[in-house]
Amino acid sequence: MIYTTLNAIREHLPCEDGWKKLLKHLGKKKADDKRLALTTVLKSNGIEDAIWCLRAVEGHDREICLYALWCIRQGKRLVRARPSPFTIPVSRGWAGYVAAHVASKSADSAALAAAGDAWVAARDAAWAVVGDAARAAVRAAQAEQFRKVFGRVKP
């Protein structure tokens, strides 16, 4: 399992709705330093918040990069089935997100936030091209891969 803490998540200024949802799921009122499995965030808040919380993980850069590359490949497969001008932005967005995560160990967290925002914008543009069923399938596949990668890693 890969873990973080509520304090580590809070340091990265999560959105208020996602934060409240996670605290409610955990039955807590405030952040603490107790270990929190990323798969718990996935179960509570869904894949997008779980991916966002990767910024609050110490170490495991290899696993995070491998997961991001897997997501890029899945996005390319989806768009190949329905060609779109957004294939490259989505891939670059994820790649930038990962690069910023790895660099954030010594860089300003604003770089990570900007890369994450770029990824979200690119993803949203790509989502406009595909239907609801395709989006649901992608999220389900990402969640399953997230469980595989981050739920089985030794600390």
Structure in words:
This protein has 155 residues and is mainly alpha-helical. It has helices spanning 6-11, 16-26, 38-45, 47-52, 61-81, 87-103, 109-127, 132-150, and strands spanning 3-5, 35-37. It starts with a strand and ends in a 5-residue tail after the last helix.
SSE blueprint and pairings:
Elements: E1 3-5, H1 6-11, H2 16-26, E2 35-37, H3 38-45, H4 47-52, H5 61-81, H6 87-103, H7 109-127, H8 132-150
Antiparallel strand pairs: 1-2
Helix pairs in contact: 5-6, 5-8, 6-7
Strand order of the largest sheet: 1-2
Summarize model confidence as the mean pLDDT. 76
| Percentage of residues in strands | under 5%
Q: What distance separates the N and C termini?
A: 6 Å
Q: Strand-and-helix sequence, N→C? A: EHHEHHHHHH
Query: What is the count of β-strands?
Result: 2
SS-derived structural category? mainly alpha
Q: How many helical elements?
A: 8
Q: Helix proportion of residues, in percent?
A: 55-70%
Shape: globular
* Rg of Cα set: 15 Å
Question: What low-confidence regions span 5 or more consecutive residues with pLDDT below 50?
Answer: none
What is the makeup of the main sheet? 2 strands, antiparallel
